[in-house]
Amino acid sequence: MIEIEIFSDIVCPWCFIGKARLDAVLETSVGEGISLRWRPYQLQPEIPAEGLDRADYLSRRYGAQADLAKAPERILQEAEAEGLNLRYDLIERMPNTRLAHQVLSFSYPFGVQHALAQVLFEAYFCRGVDVGDVSQLLIAAEQVGLPVKPLQTYLAENQGLTELEQQRERATDLGLSGVPGYYFADRFLLPGAQDQETMKQIIQRVKDKLVPAP
Q1: Comparing C-alpha atoms, which of 64, 133, 36 is closest to residue 94?
Q2: Alpha-carbon span 173 to 171, nearest angstrom
Q3: What is the full DSSP assignment across 1-60?
């Protein structure tokens, strides 16, 4: 089994697009013998734990003319090509994603981490859900079958924060300055939301190098 570690942030549109592309590739024969693990990365760790009002944030950064519904055309086009409808007009909060990463870390032993990532991406980008709000994260956790009470304890005790810091430092050591980033079998790094054909070729090359011929 070859593991692909996915360094990602829930508020990163390219990470959502990259997941759609990776999913499509893994549905082919190339996906045989591949396992996935999501790793935390925070694009804006300085955002307060309670998040920021997005309208205020954008107006301070871009002025009164800031358009809340507007997103770079390329992002919208690339997302649409993968069947994703990004609704920036519904997003009211700029969340701190620390709690979301803690929930993703908690979910890994239960085998639902990849499904949870999809639920969180859809919640934020398609419905404007505040993924920094613990009540919303618990709803997402229930959707994929996670036990809520142990998760609440996990979050209340701030478990998973050491791993978050370790993986953020590890991403830097690997040379990642943004996300998504895909790390194959603890040996090969592929940065960025590559197209499906590139991802397919890279995965196959890794398998050819690491998996003995029958």
Answers
A1: 133
A2: 5
A3: -EEEEEEE-TT-HHHHHHHHHHHHHHTSGGGTTEEEEEEE--S-TTS-TT-EEHHHHHHH
**CA atoms within 13 A of residue 57's CA, in its CB half-sphere:** 13
d(C-alpha 134, C-alpha 101), whole Å: 12
Residue 94 corresponds to which tokens in the numbers above?
Answer: 């700029």
**Integer Cα distance of 60 and 54 in angstroms:** 10
Domain that residue 100 falls in:
2-210
Q: What is the CA radius of gyration of the chain?
A: 17
Q: What is the CATH number of the domain that holds 95?
A: 3.40.30.10
Separation between Cα atoms, residue 203 and residue 40, nearest integer Å: 22
E strands, the chain, are: 2-8, 34-40, 52-53, 93-94, 181-184, 188-191
**pTM check: above 0.90:** yes
**Count: domains in the chain:** 1
**Tens-digit pLDDT profile for residues 38-95:** 999 999 999 999 999 998 888 887 776 556 566 778 999 999 999 999 999 999 999 9
* Helix/strand/coil for 213: coil
At 172-185, the pLDDT tens digits run 999 998 999 999 99
Rounded Cα distance, 67 and 51, in Å: 19
Residue whose token pair is 């549109």: 13
